[in-house]
């Protein structure tokens, strides 16, 4: 942890923090707090938890990340994807609404936090690279649909649970006769209003003469307006008596967590989910951080980000809440409200704390359906069909990986979907590298350049064959080269020298080394000598430690040109005369 | 199946097959049959099956492979590793000695055969490349130890089963009081004799004036001599009455297989094991085939090999026997006996059939302990400590993959071991490629060559940074480049142009494309232009289908030299004057 060694990352901006900055950040935080309240509560409901835990999860984690993270813009708190995975992991283990469910959510945040900190300390951040772009894309689109469908129950005022589309739909149909009419009417109105605000409010405000920035920010306040309207409405008409589910009494005590009743099996069952939350949350968060940092030419350090997000999750667990990460919409709210430094995150947290202490009675009559509706309207934007089409035109295989991830997440489950997606990505990559481009090359007349004999008019030398392999040599393709070379000498019986041109080989592993030794031995016993040319520095460093070089009967040439000159020496004069 | 389209692979040698060849192959097959009888019966016992099934497995599969395979030397039949995996797969599902056990072995051969044929038809042979050299090495060493320990029970005359070293040892200790003294005495003598023959017989025969080749072949007859001696001994002393287990009556009917009682669960339980047998058997077989083919400059076609071995396994199932593959010791016996063509495999099979019909009474008193002892003596040679040391010096990571495979196979089980090994290999490879060598390069003065600025005295141009990445660009490292470039412009605020030199990039996938677009966008918003140079043909073909190129504000240069010339144009004169 280099950065920690130099003190908190926050020191970088805290040192030059001025009173003027404080005023700007303060104003921004005040606005952001108002906008983030319904969002945070909505994501808590999405996770299957009481709404007020969304506020809990927006306080301590935000402060911790502001001090430990390397992004100056990123806002950390409850986020749609991590909340959805939370629900998907805990649902099979506990009843939503039970104390056990809340305990497991807290535990999940804690374990995810520990995973992230461990990945940071062990520099294992590269594991997150396993999530290829097609897998993430398929996962997010399918999750968005799952989230939206999962929220429908709140819009209808019924109970329904399930880990995939089939389970969810079946459970909803089973409870179809329990639909609550007042809830349904409120939901329909709210969805209509939200879509209207989203699509037209900003335009209308602009035509009214407001600046583009103010108009955008105000249009984001749409949900807040809806929250106020519906809360008043429910309170005046006592709709909670008619079966409309409301946020209700908010407990200010930390939830009582009883880990003594926790079984080892449960912990094991949580581990894959916790890992998924860590990895998916981290990847999403870092992309958001990078996209905001680039504009300001700031430097995001992935390893420190792992640490910061890990600490934020542990902080969330300690405050009795659920997994958090850096979110795109939170960050947009933050920056468009005018936040300049991570101090805004700290101040937003403090405002949120004040809300929690003094203003919770205001949320008593807020209907859950409104929170659910705002999630649905926001989340469906994440379904990205264009991305599939784009990838399909670029690579059919990768489009297949995307589609497989999408459908498995939708119809089987999130964890299985991710595993299938990663496996397919790896498989296609291995397929690609195990079908490397191998070419026999010859010299472009009059130059020192060597090109594919099948594509260019080039000179070759009798009895000498030069093979160029355009791929790393490792276990996935080691035997391919072996097959190619041995097949070549079986077909061309007059070959005396084979030169392996390694200009595109960036690594050689033990399997490839083994194959090269086998090739060398077998060529020897067939009376053919194996040579190498243009081996890269780092590859040569590795080969020097091997018996391949000491047992090699042929030579190692710095350049392919030198190889051909040396090997064709006896007939070189004749060739130069051509 | 190109080759099948042109007729049987066997047509290549059958067309020019002469009467003289038949005489040579006939003599060789006669010798080979005698030598292969104890070996084949031993491997049947190793698989937990009646000894005579080893003879069954040596007939039809050998004929089928001779007609369909591409190797002229490879001998196909029961082999140590596949027999061991067979036992390890079936033991949890049925009692050794039961009819169900035999049925499952037959089914396993059939399913493995189908897997191999499918892999051939779908050209999925590259899947076998997943087995990296360290994983195979660790697997074979550990399996050899497991096999040897598993055979100990026959030497002691007790019952003991288990899938790993711990289970085996515990079960042997549990039955330690049942050790059969006559069996133990025979075993000790036999092991002593076999080791003596192995180490000294060949030398002694050579000092007696025999040619090196004859001496080696005769020393291979050591086990046959031991078989004869002990069989006579047991018969004369009626040691089978004293508890010495013997081969006994050999049934000539095909085993009655009852697949109707087979449950779907059982079939599912067999699948991973069948896949393991296919892959491990194929990899081992192809290496043996390649090593014998190279000497004769013959061409082994892996895809046709998959088909040939698959058909051989299906043939084995049809003859009521267990999984087979091409084996090293079988092939050595075959070629050193003087076999010239695959006809030897067919003739050996026919001799084996004659033995089965007319000579089985001779094996009645053959003790199982002798077969087990010859397996132990042969198999322990496969434990390869030197290979570990060699790999350790080449790569600590790969040595770790070998060690992990070794210990997990030994202490947990063969399938888990292979999975752990493959996962570690993939992980280390991904770790490697996700830490690519990235260098800022500059021009070697007076040349068109560009080298790492940290290693060479090179010229750089103000405001232009050229970055060379020495790795394929794909999901495992896409974000690494993103982090590198964005970090670079965060640190060097005066950069106006970034040139990405792609001379070592052999592939770009959708994730990398996404990262490149992100880099391009973010550089744009930071006022920096992104350019590319030296993109390879196949990579450029792919990029043309993407929006990266159409949205690129910078240029694509054929060579790095052109890039620097074009971008530094205003100050080029000054530079050339230096």
Any overview of this molecule?
Chains A, B: The chain crosses the membrane at residues 43-68, 75-95, 101-122, 134-152, 179-197, 217-239, 267-289, 344-364, 401-431. Chains A, B: InterPro entries: S04_transporter_CS, SLC26A/SulP_dom, SLC26A/SulP_fam, STAS_dom, STAS_dom_sf. Chains A, B: It is found in: Membrane. The structure is a homodimer of 578-residue chains. Chain A has helices at 2-5, 11-14, 19-46, 53-56, 60-68, 80-90, 99-121, 133-156, 165-174, 181-207, 212-220, 222-237, 264-295, 302-318, 328-336, 343-359, 368-379, 385-394, 396-411, 414-433, 478-491, 510-525, 537-543, 547-551, 560-567, 569-577, and strands spanning 76-77, 325-326, 438-443, 450-452, 464-469, 497-501, 529-533, 556-557. Chain A is mostly helical. The longest helix of chain A is centred in the middle third of the chain and has 32 residues, at 264-295. Chain A is elongated and about 100 Å long. The first copy, chain A, starts with a helix and ends with a helix. Mean pLDDT of chain A is 85; it is low at 1-5 and 571-578. Chains A and B meet through helix 13, helix 18, helix 20, helix 21 and helix 22 of A and helix 13, helix 18, helix 20, helix 21 and helix 22 of B.
List the helices and strands and how they pair.
Two copies of one chain form a homodimer.
Chain A: H1 2-5, H2 11-14, H3 19-46, H4 53-56, H5 60-68, E1 76-77, H6 80-90, H7 99-121, H8 133-156, H9 165-174, H10 181-207, H11 212-220, H12 222-237, H13 264-295, H14 302-318, E2 325-326, H15 328-336, H16 343-359, H17 368-379, H18 385-394, H19 396-411, H20 414-433, E3 438-443, E4 450-452, E5 464-469, H21 478-491, E6 497-501, H22 510-525, E7 529-533, H23 537-543, H24 547-551, E8 556-557, H25 560-567, H26 569-577
Parallel strand pairs in A: 5-6, 6-7, 7-8
Antiparallel strand pairs in A: 1-2, 3-4, 3-5
GO cellular component, one term (chains A, B): membrane
Membrane topology (chains A, B): Multi-pass membrane protein
Transmembrane segments (chains A, B): 43-68, 75-95, 101-122, 134-152, 179-197, 217-239, 267-289, 344-364, 401-431
């Amino acid at each position: 942890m280099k950065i920690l060694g130099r003190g908190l990352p926050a020191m970088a901006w805290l040192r030059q923090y001025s009173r003027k900055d404080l005023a700007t950040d303060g104003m921004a935080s005040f606005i952001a707090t108002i906008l983030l309240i319904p969002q945070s509560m909505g994501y808590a409901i999405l996770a299957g938890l009481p709404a007020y835990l969304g506020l809990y999860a927006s306080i301590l984690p935000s402060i911790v990340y502001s001090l430990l993270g390397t992004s100056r813009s990123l806002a950390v708190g409850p986020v749609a994807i991590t909340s959805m995975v939370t629900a998907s992991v805990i649902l099979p283990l506990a009843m939503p609404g039970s104390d056990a469910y809340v305990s497991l959510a807290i535990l999940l945040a804690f374990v995810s936090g520990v995973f992230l900190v461990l990945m940071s300390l062990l520099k294992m951040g590269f594991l997150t690279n396993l999530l290829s772009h097609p897998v993430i894309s398929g996962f997010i689109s399918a999750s968005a649909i799952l989230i939206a469908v999962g929220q429908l129950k709140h819009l209808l005022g019924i109970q329904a649970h399930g880990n995939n589309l089939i389970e969810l739909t079946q459970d909803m149909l089973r409870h179809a006769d329990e639909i609550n009419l007042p809830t349904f009417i409120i939901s329909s109105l709210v969805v209509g209003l939200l879509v209207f605000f989203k699509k037209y409010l900003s335009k209308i405000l602009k035509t009214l003469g407001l600046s583009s920035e103010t108009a955008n920010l105000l249009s984001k306040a749409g949900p807040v307006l809806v929250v106020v309207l519906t809360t008043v409405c429910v309170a005046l008409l006592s709709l909670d008596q008619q079966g409309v589910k409301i946020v209700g009494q908010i407990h200010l005590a930390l939830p009582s967590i009883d880990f003594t009743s926790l079984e080892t099996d449960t912990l094991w069952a949580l581990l894959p989910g916790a890992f998924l939350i860590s990895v998916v949350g981290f990847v999403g968060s870092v992309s958001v951080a990078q996209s905001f940092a680039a504009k300001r030419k700031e430097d995001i350090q992935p390893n420190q980000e792992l640490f910061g997000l890990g600490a934020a999750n542990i902080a969330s667990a300690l405050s009795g809440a659920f997994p958090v990460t850096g979110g795109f919409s939170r960050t947009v709210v933050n920056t468009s409200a005018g936040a300049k430094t991570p101090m805004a995150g700290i101040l937003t947290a403090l405002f949120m704390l004040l809300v929690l202490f003094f203003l919770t009675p205001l949320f008593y009559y807020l209907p859950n359906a409104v929170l659910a509706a705002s999630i649905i309207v926001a989340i469906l934007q994440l379904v990205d069909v264009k991305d599939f089409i784009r990838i399909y035109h670029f690579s059919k295989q990768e489009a297949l990986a995307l589609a497989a991830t999408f459908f498995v997440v939708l119809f089987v489950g999130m964890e299985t979907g991710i595993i299938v997606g990663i496996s397919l990505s790896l498989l296609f990559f291995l397929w690609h590298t195990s079908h490397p481009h191998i070419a026999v090359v010859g010299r472009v007349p009059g130059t020192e350049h060597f090109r594919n004999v099948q594509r260019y008019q080039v000179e070759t030398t009798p009895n000498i064959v030069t093979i160029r392999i355009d791929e790393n040599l490792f276990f996935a393709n080691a035997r391919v080269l072996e097959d190619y070379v041995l097949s070549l000498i079986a077909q061309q019986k007059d070959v005396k020298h084979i030169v392996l041109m390694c200009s595109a080989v960036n690594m050689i592993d033990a399997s490839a080394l083994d194959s090269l030794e086998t090739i060398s031995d077998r060529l020897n016993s067939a009376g053919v000598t194996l040579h190498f040319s243009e081996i890269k520095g780092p590859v040569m460093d590795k080969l020097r430690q091997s018996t391949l070089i000491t047992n090699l009967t042929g030579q190692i040439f710095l350049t392919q040109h030198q190889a051909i000159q040396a090997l064709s020496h006896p007939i070189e004069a004749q060739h130069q005369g051509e």
